[in-house]
Amino acid sequence: MDRALADLAGRQHGRVALWQLEALGLKRSAVARRAAGGRLHRVRRGVYAVGHCAETPEGILMSAVLACGPGAVLSHRSAADHLGLRACARKRVEVTAADRRGHGLPGIEVHRSRTLDRADVTIARGIPCTTVARTLLDLAEVVDRRALERAIEQAERLRVFDGRKVHDVLSRANGRRGAPVLRAILASYEEPPLTQKELERRLFELCDGAGMDRPSTQAGIELGGGETVYADFLWPDTKLLVETDGRETHGTRQAFERDRRRDRRLMMLGYRVVRFTWLDLERRPDEVIRTVLALR
């Protein structure tokens, strides 16, 4: 029993729910004895910390999810924060649940859904959470259009945005009030992305308009060990390197991590690396040129 309890708590940031303890075979009287003996610490109604009661950000989120019963998941703005799609943590944790079990609990905002598809749920850093696609649909109901666009842009930067999965979520939206605005944004993001030659032309136009020297293109840089990388755009005199993404942004997390390792190696050689998406060049040219000018 103790081993099973420790394993469960280890997967849940040290938190367990009463309904989980009962599923393990513990009676409420046994739970009470463990709490009295300091082996369990009540952190919420029906939720306990195992061994110690130190709070962590993940422990707070996990406690809120567990308090809302089996099948509950982190959702809406809290899911967006947890997935890295926005950086605006709220005091109230938003959870989607099948029933009203968590309603009225302090610090929790419960959204009821009897139709949360298993395809819309993932585990993110140990916490049951809506997927990126489902989170964007939920977010569309509680934030304005610009905030939703920023979340989508961040998902693209993290390379976790998948338009096909968003379309799948929308196909099951069943009249959700956030669906129209998400569809409209998605349609605009599915315009054909710029090719590398078009990106080059666009950046050159911005440089010419700002009176800047044009950068070198596809310049080879030796990383050492016989490895050479090719920069999209490089100002050799200041070692400023600009990378652009002219493809649809459906890359993998592995590709994202590989690019960042490459950037770190370049920075160790004294290069400054700035990344822009094709959307940046098309929709935010002033921001692009301001950034480049500041770094030049």
What is shown here, in short?
With 296 residues, the protein is of the alpha+beta class. The protein is built from 13 helices and twelve strands. The protein has helices at 2-11, 18-23, 28-36, 57-67, 76-82, 132-139, 145-157, 163-171, 179-189, 196-209, 253-268, 278-283, 285-295; strands at residues 15-17, 40-44, 47-50, 73-74, 93-97, 108-112, 121-124, 127-130, 216-224, 227-235, 240-245, 272-277.
Task: Outline the structure in words.
The chain is an alpha+beta fold. It has three domains: 1-52, Arc Repressor Mutant, subunit A; 56-189, no CATH class; 196-295, Endonuclease, Chain A. It is 44% helix and 21% strand. The chain has helices spanning 2-11, 18-23, 28-36, 57-67, 76-82, 132-139, 145-157, 163-171, 179-189, 196-209, 253-268, 278-283, 285-295, and strands at 15-17, 40-44, 47-50, 73-74, 93-97, 108-112, 121-124, 127-130, 216-224, 227-235, 240-245, 272-277. The strands form four sheets. It has a four-stranded mixed β-sheet with strand order 9-10-11-12, sandwiched between helices. The longest helix is centred in the last third of the chain and has 16 residues, at 253-268. The model has no long low-confidence stretch (mean pLDDT 89).
